[in-house]
## 1
Amino acid sequence: MLELLLGDEAVALGALDAGISGAFSYPGTPATEILEFIQQRTRGVDGLSARWSANEKVALEEALGMSFAGKRALVSMKHVGLNVAADPFMNAALTGAHGGLVIVVADDPGMHSSQNEQDTRYYGDFAKVLMFEPSNQQECYDMTREAFEMSERIGLPVLVRLVTRLAHSRANVLRSAPAQVDRGVRLANRPQDWTLLPVNARRRFRRLIDLQSALREYSEHARYNKLELRGPHGILAAGLAHNYVREVIGSDSSYSLLKIGTYPLPVPLIRELIDHCSDVLVAEDGYPFIESHLCGLLGVPGRAIRGKRDGAFPPDGELSVDRVRAALGMPATTTPPKVEDLPGRPPRLCDGCPHCDTFSALLEATEGMDRVLFSDIGCYTLGALPPYNAVQSCVDMGASVSMALGAAKAGAHPVLCTIGDSTFCHSGMTPLLGAAHEDANMTVVILDNATVGMTGGQEVFVTGDAFVDLLKGLGVREDQIVRIEPVKKQHQRNVELVRKAIEHRGLSVILACRPCVQVSRKATKKLTEKEQASGAPA
Ligand SMILES: Cc1ncc(C[n+]2csc(CCOP(=O)(O)OP(=O)(O)O)c2C)c(N)n1
Ligand code: SF4
C-alpha cells in the first residue's frame, strides 16, 4: 500500500511495522513529527508506549531499558539532542542491544531552527555503530526496518541520520507487511555485559572493536550503496545529496556515481570509483565527513578530490540542486530572489503571548540597572529581538540557570535568567539545585506556559502548583518563590514583585504562570468541535 509521508513519518511507520514496543523522544525540530506520528497511529492501542520523555538522555536510557527487556525500541531526537544523550549513546555501544534499538537523529544543516549545524555522522563514527543515511522517504521506511533487524543481528544500537529537507518533505512510500515479532519480555540475562565496571567495559569495548569487520562487511554489500561506473568524472553522493546529484546529471554518461547510504563507509566501492575516475566530487549534507575520510591529511595521489574542503561547495548551509550545479560548473536553474526585495518578516512572539508580559515586567523592574539576563531555548528566546532586546545569551538547554550561577559567583548583580517550563524540566533543575544549595544571589524566572510552545505544543510534566512543590523539592525555600500572573492588568504588581526579588540578597525564583495562547486556542477549538459534534451549544 502506498502512503504519502514526510521523511519523519516514514521513519515512524517503518518502526511501527518493525514491531516496536516503545518510542521515546524529546521534541525538537526537525524530528518532532516522528513521535507525533506514532502517537497518532497508536492512540488507543495497548502494549505500545509512546510518550515524551523529560530530555533526550532520558529518552535514550528508557529505550535502552526496553531493549534490555528484549523488546524493540525507537528513540528520536534532533541533532543537538544527541549531545544531551551522548553519555548513554556512547556507552550503549558497549552494553549492546538485546531487543532492537534504533536511534534516529535529524540534523539541521542551514540551521533552520537550531543553534548549530553539527553532523551526527561523527557521533556514529565515534561510537563505532552502524549508521544509515536515507536519500528519500522510501529509504526512511526501509532503512528503519532494516536497522531493527541489524540491531538484533549484531547486538548493537543502530543510528539513522536524517536532514531537515528529508524529514520535512513528502513522497509516496510503499509499505511492506508488518514484521511478526515476539513482544514478550525476554530479559538480557548477562548482567556482566550491561554493568560497565572497568573489568566488563574493557571486554565489551573489545567486542565492539571485533564487531567492526561485520559492520564493514554489511556496509560493503548493503543495497543502499550503489556504484554506476561510466564517465571519468566521479561523484560520491551521500543521503539526500544523491537526489540533488541525480536531478543535475540526469543520464549524462560523463559522470560515474557512487551513492552512499550506510556507514562504516563501503571502502571497496569507493576504491573502484577512485580508480575509475580522474576527479571525484563529494556531495554530502553537513560537514565534509566522507571527504575528510577520503583525503586524510595528504589527499589521494593523482586524483582531484573536490567538495567542501576545496571550496567546490560552501562549507556551511544546506546542499541544493543549484549548489551541485555550481560545483559541476553549470549555471543555476533558478534566480534566487534578492533578500532586499523580500518583505522582512522577523520572528516574534504571538500576540497575547504570556512571555510578552513577563519581559515587559522584567524590563521595567530593571530599568537603568546594569543587569545581566541570561536566557534559554524556547519561544521566549525571542525576547532577544525588538521590542524587548532583553536577552544577553542563549546557548543550550538549561544553560541560562548555570550561566546565571556562574555570573553570580563572579559578583555580577543583578543577575537574572529566563527559562521555559519544559526547558527547566529538561536541564534547568540540576543547576537550580546547586543555586539553592548555595543561596546564590540571582533571580530565576520560570516561564510556566503549560506547554512546549516552540515545538508545537507538546505536553509538559509540571505546571502550576506542582511547580511550587518541585521547586521546594529542589531546595528552594517557600519565601524565595514568587508567583506572578503575566497579564497586562497585573503589570504594576509584577514590576514590584520582580524588583523585590532582585533586591533580595540570595536566590529568588519567579514563577510566571499563564498558558500559551496557541494551546488555549487549540483547546477551545477542540472543545467547540466536540460540543458541535454532540449537538451541545458551542
Ligand atoms: C537539546 C535540545 N533539545 C530540543 C531542542 C528543541 N527545543 C527548542 S526550544 C524547546 C522547548 C521549549 O519549551 P519551553 O521551555 O517550555 O518554552 P516555550 O517554547 O513553551 O516558551 C525545545 C524542545 C533544542 N533546541 N535542544
Ligand atoms: S506559541 Fe505560545 S509560547 Fe510561543 S510565542 Fe506563541 S503564545 Fe507564546
## 2
Amino acid sequence: MNFGITSDQEAMLGHVRALLDDVCDMAYVAKCDETRTPPREAFDAMARNGWLGLIAPEEYGGAGGSPTDLALLLEETGNHFEELGLWLFRNFTYGCYAVLKHGTDEQKRRIVPGVVKGELSFAFGLTEPDSGSDAAALRTRAVADGSDFVINGRKQFTSGMDIADYVLLALRTSDQGKKQLGISTFIVDTKLPGIEVRKIPTLGQHAIGTTEVTFNDVRVPATALLGQLDKGWAICEDTLRYERLCLSAARIGAARRAFELALDYAKTRTQFGKPIGSFQVTQHKFADMKVMLDTSQTMIRRYAWLMENGKAERADTAVIKYYIAESYKTISDVCLQIFGGYGYCMEYPMQRFFRDSRLATIGGGTSEIQKNIIAATLGL
Ligand SMILES: Cc1cc2nc3c(=O)[nH]c(=O)nc-3n(C[C@H](O)[C@H](O)[C@H](O)COP(=O)(O)OP(=O)(O)OC[C@H]3O[C@@H](n4cnc5c(N)ncnc54)[C@H](O)[C@@H]3O)c2cc1C
C-alpha cells in the first residue's frame, strides 16, 4: 500500500494553502467566530478556484478526484478554519457523493453542477430530539399524498441548515417492526413553506453552528426521494462512512494548526529566564502530540486507500472517527495549557480550538458509539 502523496497532490496542496493563506487568515477566522458569520468570502474563493468540484466527475464540471485527494483538501482547509472545512464537507458528502451514488440522472443534473460551482449548499438531518446515538429510531414522517410526500416532525442539530439550499433528510415512510426498515432519504428544498429553523446556541462552532428544524405539513414532490422508498437506512450508513472521512480530515488539519501555534509560542515565551519549550515537561507534551498527529495522518491515508479500493469496513470508519476526534480534543486542551492564562483569553485563538474541538467526540457519532462498533467486530 502506498500512503505517500503524489506530485499532483503536493501541487494541489500548495495551491490550496496559498489561496487560504490569502482569503482565510487567523484574523478573518477570529472575526467570523466572534461575529457568528459564515466564512462566505473564503467559501466563494474556494468555489471560484474550482475546489468545490474536486470529487465530481468532469461531466458535472468537476475534477474526478479520489477520497485521498479529498482528505488532503479538507485537512488543509481545516488547518485554516475547521468550520470552513465542515461547510465544504457537507457539500462534498451530501450534495456530491450521496447524490452521485444514489440519485437519479435528473437529480444529478439538477444538483451536482450547482454544488460544484458553490451556488448550492447542503445540510444533513438525521438526528432528532429523541433519537441521537440511536439514530434509526427516528420518527419524523413523510406520508405519500398523491404523487407528493408530506413531512411532519422535528430534526435536532441540523448543522448549516440556515445557509443551505437543500437538506438531505432521513424520514420514516413505513413501520416494519425493525427500526432500520421503513426509512427513506429525501433531498428537500430548505425554503419550502412549513419549514421553521431555530439556531441553537452552542459552546463552539460559532461561525455556522447548528439548528433545530420543525416540519409542519411540508409538501415535497416524488422527485425529492433519494434512492428507493423504505431503503434509506443503507444510504445513511454509506453517507456516514464518507462523512467520517471528511470530518476526520478537517479535524486533523485543525489539530495541526493548534499544535503549530503552541509550538511557536513555546519557542518564544520565556519564564525563569528560558523559553517554556526548553522544559522537558513541555517537550514531552509536544512529543505526545506529534505522535497523535502522525498516527492520525497515517490512519486517514490508509482509510482513504481502503475507500478507493472498496475495502473500508464499518469498524475501519469507527477506528478513524474515534482516534482522530479524541486526539484533536486532547491536542486542543494541551495546547491551551501551553498558552497558560493567554490560552484562556478570548483575545487569543487557542480558546476557539478548545471550544470547537469539544464537538469532535460527540458530533457525527459519539466516541462511545464508535467503541461499541469496534468492539462488536471482536467476537467478545
Ligand atoms: C454542534 C452539533 C452539530 C451536529 N450536527 C449534526 C448534523 O448536521 N446532522 C445530524 O443529523 N446530527 C448532527 N449532530 C448530532 C450528533 O450526531 C448527536 O448529538 C450525537 O450522535 C449524539 O446524540 P445525542 O446528542 O442525542 O446524545 P445521546 O445519544 O442521547 O447520548 C448521550 C450520551 O450517552 C452515550 N450513549 C448513548 N448510547 C450509548 C450506548 N449504547 N453505549 C454507550 N454510551 C451511549 C453517548 O455516547 C453520550 O455520551 C450534531 C450535534 C451537535 C452537538
## 3
Amino acid sequence: MAGKRNTQRAYKAAKKHPKVTAAIAVILVIIIAAVIIFFILRPDIFKSLFFKDPAGNGAEAGAVAEIAEGELSIHFLELGNKYTGDCTLIKCGDTEVLIDAGSRKGSAETIKKYVDNYCTDGVLEYVIATHAHQDHIAGFVGNKDGDTRTGILYQYKVETLIQFSGITDKLKEKPTEIYTDYLSAVDYAKGNGTAVYTAKECWYETKDGAQKQYFLDEAGNVSLNILYQRYYDEITTDENDFSVCTLLTQKAGENTYNYLFTGDLEKEGESSLVDKNDLPEVDLFKGGHHGSYTASTDKLLNKIKPKNIAVCCCCGTTEYTSNVENTFPAQAFIDRASKYTQYIYCTTLIKDYKAGEFTSMNGNIVFYTKGGRLKLYCSNNSTVLKDTEWFKANRKWNGV
Ligand SMILES: [Zn+2]
C-alpha cells in the first residue's frame, strides 16, 4: 500500500513541477546512456562485474592438490637453469605424454623429479621430440652418473617415441654433439622396446603402429592428434621448421577443449599448418618458438583464436639476442597474441643472464580439467604477463 501511495505522490509532484520532472528525466537518460556507452567501450569491465572469468576465456583458479585428480592435465615445466627450453607433460589417467625435454642435459633431473609426481609407474606412454635442437632434446640424453644415464629416454620405459621427420643438411653433414647423443639415446630406447616413428610416418600411417590419432583414455574422450605441416615432406635450412605439431582434443561432458603444440615452428610451417589441417579454435596454445617474433603469426592466431597461451621461456633472456624488443617473449609476439587473449603465462624470468641468475615467472604452469571445467595452477603465481613487473618495465600492452 505504501508503495502505491508513494507512486501517487510522485505522480502528483510531477504534474505540479513539469520542468523539474523533465530535467530529471533528461539527466537520467544521459546517465543511462553514459553507462551503456562506457560498457560498450569497456566490455571487459562489464564482464568482470557479471561473469566469474572477466575475459570469458581464461581458466578458473586451481589448486595443486587437485591436479592429479583431474581428468587431464597439461604441465609446462621450468627446467632448472637460465636457458630457455621446452618440456610439456600431459597426463590423462595413467597415460603420460612428454613433449620435448629441454633445455640442457642437466634439466633431465629437474624434469624427472617433476614428472615423478605424476607418473608413478615409470612408463611414459608417448614421448614426442619436436626437432633436433638441444633446448628440446638435451633432457632426453641427460648426464652420465657413474654407469647410469640421467636422460629421460634412459630413465623411463617409453612405449612410443614420435620424432621430427627430418634434419637440415647442415646437421647431417656436421652433427652436433647433442644430436649424436640423442641418436644414441633413441637407440637405447629402441633396444628397450620403444616403438619409434617420425611425424611423417604417423601422418601417412605408413608404418605398423604409426597413427595420426592416439586415444589417451579407454573411453576415447581424449585424443592426441599429429597435425600435418609441409616440412614433414620438405627439406629446409632451419631445424625449427621440422617441428612436430600436435593437437590434443578432450571431450569433457558438454565441453570440448583443444590444446595446440607447435614446438618452434616458424612462419612458413605455421602457414601450411593452417592450410593443411582443419584447426579448431583452441583453449590453450603453447606460444610458438618460446614467444619469438618469428612465430605465432597472425595467420595461425586468427585461425586458432587462443584463449590461453603458455610460453616456455626465460623472460628477457639475452641468450639469443641483446635486442630488448626481441628477447622472449618478444614485443611483436605480444602485439599479435594480445589481440586474442590477456591470459598469457611464462615459466621463467631472467635476473642476470651472464651471472646465471634466474627465477620463476609463473613457474610450472599447469592447465587441467576437473569435473569438466578448465583450471589453472602455477607453482609461483598466476599473474598474467601484462600485469607483471617485468612486463611493465619492458613491454607495451596494446591488446584486449
Ligand atoms: Zn626452442
## 4
Amino acid sequence: MERILEPELMEEDSQVLAYAQADFEAENQGFVDLFREYFPEFSEGQVFDLGCGPGDIPIKFARMFSTCRVTGVDASAPMIRLAEQAVAQAGLSDRVTFRCARFQDLPGASLADAAISNSLLHHVPNPLQFWNKLRQLVRPGAPVLVMDLLRPASPEEAQAIVDRYAADEPEILRRDFYNSLLAAFTEDEIASQLARMNLTRLLIDVIDDRHWVVGGIIH
Ligand SMILES: C[S@@+](CC[C@H](N)C(=O)[O-])C[C@H]1O[C@@H](n2cnc3c(N)ncnc32)[C@H](O)[C@@H]1O
C-alpha cells in the first residue's frame, strides 16, 4: 500500500483535546524507559523533543532525568497551550519549556545533548528534512531516539489495528489513528532514508506489530 499523507499539524481543537485526553501512559512511559535502556550513561543536559504534542513525554523525561532541561517543539499552538498547562501542573516549568515552531525552522546549531521524537515522522511530507534537522540539532556524540508507527500492508490491516488497540476510543481518535497508520513509513523506507542521510549507525528495531524505533549516537 502506498503512503497516504495526513495533514502535517494537529490543530483542530476537538482533535487536539481528544489526543491530549487519550491514555498514552504505557506507550509514552515505555518510550522514556527505552531511552534509558539504550543510553544507560546518559544523565543530564539539554534535550529536544520534536513534535512534542501535549507535553506528556517531556514531563516523563524530565521526571526520569532530574537534572535535564527539556525543550518541546511543536508547530500547533493549541498543542503547545495544553503542554504548557500540563508542565505547570506538574511543577516542572523551570526545566521543561516549549517552542511553537516547525522543527524545519529551528536553528541547526548543535544545541542539544540529546533529541527524542515520538509519532512525528508520519506527519512530515519530506522525512529527509526530519533526519537532516535531527543531525544538525544535536552535538556530536549525542544520543537520539525516534519512534513512530509502521505502515500496514493494506487499509484492512490498518483498520484491524485500530479495532485491536483503540476499540473504545472516541471516533476522532480512531480516525486520526487510522490516517496516521496510512501516512506512516515501512521499515524498508526508514532504512533507505537513513542510508540516504548517511545515518546508518542509527539502528532500526521493530518493537511490536505497529511501531519502529531508531536509536543511536550521532557522530
Ligand atoms: C501524533 S502527535 C505526537 C505528540 C507526542 N510526541 C506524543 O508522542 O504524544 C504529532 C505532533 O507533531 C506535530 N507536528 C507535525 N509536524 C510538525 C512540524 N513540522 N514541526 C513541529 N511539529 C509538528 C503535530 O502538531 C502534533 O502535535
